[in-house]
User: Fold this.
Amino acid sequence: MAGDERKRAKRRVFSGIQPSGDVQLGNYLGAIKGWVERQDAKENYFCIVDLHAITTPQKPEELRRQTRSLAAMLFAAGLDPEKCTVFIQSHVTAHAEGCWALNCVTPVGWLERMTQYKDKISRQESVATGLLDYPVLMAADILLYDADEVPVGDDQRQHVELTRDIAQRFNHLYGDTFKVPEAVIPEAGARVMGLDDPTVKMSKSYAHIRGHAVNLLDEPKEIERSFKRAVTDSGNDIRFSDDPEKAGVNNLLGVYKAITGRSREEVEADFAGARGYGDLKARVAEAVIEELRPLRERHHRLMNDVGELDRLLAVGAEQAGAVSENKLKEVKRRMGLVIPGEQ
Ligand code: TYM
Assistant:
């Protein structure tokens, strides 16, 4: 198995996030918050996946701005550059090359079955090849680092499963090369739903719809308004529930639970004396505002020093490059490609 694995003191974590659109509360609760909380216990690699972002049309200037803004947000949320390698995917060319190698062992049928792909093509007239190939690039991201754990929200579970299948297929064809990673899905916050429609996952793609998402950079007044408008039901019972009618209240309680780290019972007890849904919405909004306030302030400071931000990202790219280039060489060797300087 992976050459450096025996020497590892900590389990290695790899995860990624797209810089398409503003980072929203679902990204934070489903992924980033957990990355920050566990960074001491793990060896960490976090990638801003700009190559994934361009699988759907982006405005170039916007994408460039959003990529740096997302990097600033990851540091603002508490990722410590001393403990985490944070980098931009396109700065480490091994990802695109590794994707090509994995393309050559991945059946097209596996990709056509991906639910995110099916969902995206249903909303688009013309589909780029890159969109179909998206999960293979994600597999390359993860496998090039011999990651043990991939902390993601629930919507990425299927892609991590596919990554495991690709790793196993490669290992079967070419011998034991890749570590087969595990998805780590948080107990709370794994699926934050839209405030405007609690049957739809909160997503950057719908961020333009008023009242759908909370962006991490939203001003407190804006956050308050978004929660005030949140869709609930005509009842007044404040409990966790699987009843589709109660999905709105369930979502609000889920957000509160993910932020406070309290148990279901504690959360329900917190709201036992609440005066209806208005009270619930106001208190969830307050918890979100207080959680995000320091992030927004730190983000603002970091964006005022783009030179320093770029320096941190360059260090991250160098560290990530060292690990992934090494693995890529192993992949090429296994597949019979000539490595310069080797017999
Ligand atoms: P992306 O950019 O869509 O989302 C980043 C992370 O946020 C999680 N997430 C959510 N969690 C809970 N509720 C929501 N409403 C919600 N929306 C998003 C996602 O599950 C994800 O963890 N393909 C990935 C990026 C990627 C990646 C990787 C991830 C590329 N390579 C390698 C892990 C490992 C994506 O588009 O995430």
